[in-house]
Design goal:
cell membrane, disordered N terminus, signal, Ycf3, mainly alpha, globular, 63% helix, Lipoprotein_NlpI, two-stranded antiparallel ribbon, Lipoprotein NlpI
């Protein structure tokens, strides 16, 4: 990998991010040996497809189904490019033409959660589940909405349902743990260890689970988070995940200044369509609020 694409830094937290005014308490260790990649760039094919969809939507001979799908596809592209308002407008238009389009409701639920508009999020995600009870992600997204709305019991129910569909998925295991540890930390850790047995040994995200379970130190985790990238995996994507969950890890021990900076690092990746990027801003706001409390 060329040096301009990957930089390993050994700076302390206070000097890590330009413009960061937060000072790290002396009792917290420095964040060292961090890996920073260039932000992800939009794929050229997205721009080409957007241009084509704009032309399609100008046609007068589209029926309602075709128009609904075109708006949905354009909304999904806007969303992947981080253009959330434009995406939300298109998902709403898609539903106007195709009221039973579960995927559009699912996307709207995600976006309303990002805005902390939870009533609208529940309305959209409930509609997605009603239209498609086997939707692959609606239960996860409703669980996340409930997690951020502090409806922990309901979040746990949805995360358990989502995990049952794929017990080997480490990210499903992590979200369930994050919700469960709010109510019973020891039980959450035991469930985490039990669920981890289903994860494939060569799955990189097993390191995240081991970090949370106390079986892997933060420094060892940082040292190994760029190893064994799959052919279909980008460094920015892995770093987006790693820094988000490191931020959550720091929150659990009350290290809010380090959490703030890990969430900033997750945001710098520009991996807009990852769950971890979507909610890093909410986490960043929460961590900042915790820092200002006496």
């Amino acid at each position: 990998m060329q040096a301009r694409h990957l930089l390993v830094v050994t700076l302390t937290l206070a000097g890590l991010l330009t413009g960061c005014s937060l000072q790290q308490p002396a009792t917290q260790p420095a964040m060292t040996h961090l890996v920073i990649a260039e932000p992800e760039q939009a794929e050229f094919r997205y721009e080409i497809e957007l241009a084509k969809l704009n032309q399609v939507l100008m046609q007068d001979d589209l029926d309602a189904e075709q128009k609904g799908m075109a708006y949905y596809r354009r909304g999904a592209l806007y969303d992947a490019l981080g253009l959330r308002t434009l995406a939300r407008m298109d998902f709403t238009r898609a539903i106007d033409y195709q009221p039973r389009l579960a995927d559009a409701y699912n996307f709207l639920g995600i976006q309303y959660t990002e805005l902390a508009e939870f009533d609208y999020a529940y309305e959209a995600l409930d509609s997605a589940i009603e239209l498609d009870p086997e939707h692959p992600y609606a239960f996860l997204n409703r669980g996340i909405a409930q997690y951020y709305d502090h409806r922990t019991k309901y979040a746990i129910d949805d995360f358990q349902h989502h995990l049952a569909l794929d017990p080997s998925d480490p990210y499903r295991i992590l979200w369930l743990f994050l919700a469960e540890q709010r109510t019973d930390k020891e039980l959450a850790r035991q469930n985490l260890l039990n669920n981890a047995a289903a994860i494939e040994p060569n799955d990189w995200a097993l390191d995240l689970v081991n970090l949370y379970a106390g079986k892997l130190s933060e420094q060892d985790f940082l040292a190994g988070m760029t190893k064994n990238l799959r052919d279909d995996e980008k460094l920015t994507e892995r770093l987006c995940e790693a820094y988000f969950y490191l931020g959550k890890y720091k929150q659990m021990s009350g290290q809010w200044a380090q959490a703030v900076n890990y969430f900033k690092l997750a945001l710098t990746t520009n991996v807009y369509n990852f769950v971890e990027h979507r909610y890093a801003q909410l986490e960043l706001q929460d961590s900042r609020e915790q820092l200002t409390q006496p």
